[in-house]
Automatic annotation (TrEMBL):
Role: Component of ribonuclease P, a ribonucleoprotein complex that generates mature tRNA molecules by cleaving their 5'-ends.
Pfam family, one: RNase_P-MRP_p29
Family: Belongs to the eukaryotic/archaeal RNase P protein component 1 family.
Protein name stated in the entry: Ribonuclease P protein subunit p29
Record has Phosphoprotein as a keyword: yes
Coiled coil residues, start to end: none
SUPFAM superfamilies: Rof/RNase P subunit-like
Gene: Pop4
PANTHER family: RIBONUCLEASE P PROTEIN SUBUNIT P29, RIBONUCLEASE P SUBUNIT P29
Gene Ontology cellular component list: nucleolus; ribonuclease MRP complex; ribonuclease P complex
Length: 200
């Protein structure tokens, strides 16, 4: 074991090596206070913030006309294959649409299903000019359906105050647009009530 003098000499030599910028008087002053703080700086790693990928705003999408269908593409026959795909999608979703299937089960699945490609008909409306419009749904928004008719006309039909009928494999379902004002993505997670007041 070292004696007190040897220990003191060791500490002085160690401090000179550790703090070469400090003078001997300053080191002795620190030792009289019985506290020594060695110069040490930890290298703090700066965390890089992840950049969020920003999509287009609604205004930018309108300016770029992303959701507009060109006039030369507005033909009923072009979208018939889409309707066939939709029918197969619904059959798979409802496990074949068998005759003994329970109507409320199929209705519940149709309410949450994607309707792009479905053929719908406006059966009731507060605006008589909408009644009888039949066509394939090309786009569904929160408040409107965009429908292409057999006459190759693109119709924008509001959901509010309209009742739509949808037929597949003999099963007819009615959609009350006033209760259906949701985006397709939001509708898949919504719980619809089986009973309720139904009006236009």
């Amino acid at each position: 074991p070292q004696g007190s003098e040897e220990a003191k000499a060791f500490v002085n030599a160690f401090l000179k090596r550790s703090m070469p910028k400090m003078k001997d008087e300053a080191i002795q002053d620190i030792l009289t206070r019985k506290a020594v703080v060695l110069e040490h700086y930890s290298n703090k790693k700066t965390k890089q913030k992840r950049k969020k990928t920003k999509g287009f705003t609604a205004k930018q999408r309108r300016e770029m006309r992303l959701f507009e269908i060109e006039p030369e593409q507005q033909r009923y026959t072009i979208f018939l294959p889409l309707h066939e795909l939709w029918k197969q999608y619904i059959r798979d979703l409802c496990h074949g649409l068998k005759p003994d299937a329970q109507p409320h089960m199929i209705q519940g699945k149709l309410l949450k299903a994607d309707l792009h490609g479905a053929i719908v008909t406006v059966t009731k409306s507060k605006c008589p000019s909408y009644v009888g419009i039949t066509g394939i749904i090309l786009q569904e928004f929160k408040h409107v359906f965009k429908i292409i008719t057999k006459e190759d006309k693109l119709k924008v039909v509001p959901k509010l105050n309209n009742v739509f009928s949808l037929e597949i494999d003999g099963f007819i379902s009615y959609i009350y647009g006033s209760k259906f004002q949701l985006r397709a993505s939001e509708r898949s997670a919504k719980k619809f009530k089986l009973k309720g007041t139904i009006d236009l």
